[in-house]
Write a structure and sequence with these properties.
Layout lengths: L1 H9 L2 H14 L2 H12 L7 H17 L3 H14 L12 H13 L1 H36 L5 E6 L11 H6 L2 H29 L21 H34 L4 E7 L2 E7 L3
Antiparallel strand pairs: 1-2, 2-3
Amino acid sequence: MIALLLVLTLATPEADVKRARDRYEFGAYADAAGAAREILSRSTALPEPVVLEAWRILGLAEYQLGDLPAAREAFIHLLSIDPDQTLDPFLVPPPIVEFFDKVRADAEPELAPLRERKRQLEEQERLAEEARRRLLAEEAIRSGPPSKVILVEEHVYMLNFLPFGVGQFQNGDTTKGIIIAVSQVVLGAINLGAILAHNAIADDPSRRCLVSTPTNCSNPPIPDSDRALLQNIDIVKYLSAGLFWGVYAYGVVDSIANYVPRIETEITPGRTAVKLSWDF
């Protein structure tokens, strides 16, 4: 399943055209031409930059293979999409640049109307964008100052993994956060106290016995009574530690389950609305 997801993630038009470019730069011109043709043969609509790059790679590869008619055809397709397309002389060998320039010069009578049409479309898009901005500006003036204020509270995902109910407090679940925090503080204090008590008893030289001690010393140097006490302390120590990490695990799971990346609060006169928003 992971391998399938990885393939689906990498199988994008941009990734495919990059692989075709890599093959060309590596010198595998036939493979590059085949990869470019495969991209251009797809029935689905492709982004214009992908189509332009695929035709460019195909033209370059066909020239390197010695098929000048095929290279010319690819360059004509390239220019039909972008009449102002050029080849970088610092990246492309001079003979190919000269060949491309000649193809463009020969097709100039047909490219001129395409270039003018492209300029007109760009001008129409510019005018449309200006009209949209004027419309929004006029509406802002007409409606006056904003009647509400939006407060945005950004949440940090990594806080879900902190102990003491930090994730619950971030999610606004204060009661649950207090319960988790108090539980972990108490369990942590009990665990620490058990550790200190165990060390104090085990390291106290006055609480020692010898083989010659007549009673309470079946397994020196720890007296039998202290050994039983240490065993009980160990039970408390391990039990409190297990409960501490159990509460921690519950807090993490609960925090992630109720995590909201962003909370938008709309403040209007006499009314307050809360909007939850997810951004990953």
